[in-house]
Amino acid sequence: MSSQLILLSFLAYTLMLFLISFITARKSNNESYFLGNRKSPWFVVAYGMIGASLSGVTFISVTGWVENARFSYMMVVLGYLIGYFAIAKVLLPLYYRLQLTSIYTYLLDRFGKRSYKTGAFYFLLSRVIGASFRMFLVINVLQIFVFDSYGIPFWLTVVIFMALINLYTFKGGIKTIVWTDTLQTTFMLASVLLTVYFLKDQMSLSIGALGQKVIHSEYSRILFTNWQDKRFFVKEFVSGAFIAIVMTGLDQDMMQKSLSCRNLRDAQKNIISLSWILVPVNLLFLSLGAALMIFIREKGIEITGTSDTIFPQIALRHLGPFAAVVFIIGLISAAYSSADSALTALTTSFSVDVLGINRRENLTEKQRQTIRYKAHFGIAVLLIIVIVFFKSINNDAVISELFTVAGYTYGPLLGLFAFGLFTNRNVKDKWVPLIAIISPALCYLLSTYSTVLFDGYKFGFELLVLNGLLTFVGLSIVSRK
Fold it and tell me: What is the helix (H) or strand (E) element at residue 217, kind and residue range?
């Protein structure tokens, strides 16, 4: 596949994003940037959130992860249903009742300033790491298979992507992203479906026959019943519920889209619809992963690098030029969806929670907008630095690293919100930051020595639940009626 064709595809797709941005960002203000003026149609938000939920991690890592984890990830996805239901029935009513712009403002009213700043800090830390992982994954693939041929260094590729994302989001914010996400979801799903079609042609099979091969293959195993296995189905299911709660319901990035809906009922319809749609969509990605492994085995193809490069190597080198274009467009969609809403959410949290622009009555609307522009640019620079740094240390499947990191950084958020919602006790606010540090540290020690302490047991995604529980216990110790 020619580099010129890839570059043309990239430019055409980027042009479409800028056209959407031009249409949606007209007459935008801070309210448009933060909450889309609360006028987003719920079905558009739900559809767009599919791409935001999947991002580059699902697009590349999940398909490659099938090689070792099989379909065990489906138990996590089924657990999402419980988590999203809790978001719709517990968290969204709270956020709408309090009319929040940043969801972490709840912690200020419930506990105090230090708890509020702690929650905002852990979101900023979590989302910077998570967004950087996602961006690194897709940009690294583009770097290896495209930009290296032009002699463009990795750091410059990252700067180009972030500069483009910065330009089409800095004015419209969430008002623009609600609509660009629909485009990105469409191209990501189309890329997967077309790749399955190309694979069945290469293997001279019908779609039904390929489906049967996947079902009867060793890769389609969902249930792992050994309680010591990291893939044990019970802990995968329970972990999935809590992952959904913290990485959607307690995440400013994901909730900001739901808060842009016209009212609570529309936001709830958005979340419930999304939860059910993600089940067949994730099954599709896992099926693609299994089909790729079957294709590799039957054709005797040798794969180099980590499991994250399986999908790119097959799509770009073994399925023909049209399949390569389809993959590249899907990958570009994943790259943009990984960063645009994260950049907006990080800017929102930093502006509202750290700089407090909504609480500073002496600021004019124009001054608030200027501060937001500077924060938006600064966050973009920070993401560039973290992505480039991660390039030097990555050596594992990104999805595994992502959820491991989330277990440490989202755990204190889970404990804080749970304590606030399910108890009527007040905490000694000055101790909250210390508890939020001690809990992840204890989790790290328990995870490191779990096989010795717990008869061979290995922690998986349930590390998140343990972290939240330790935070909850710590808050109980420093609380009073």
Answer: none
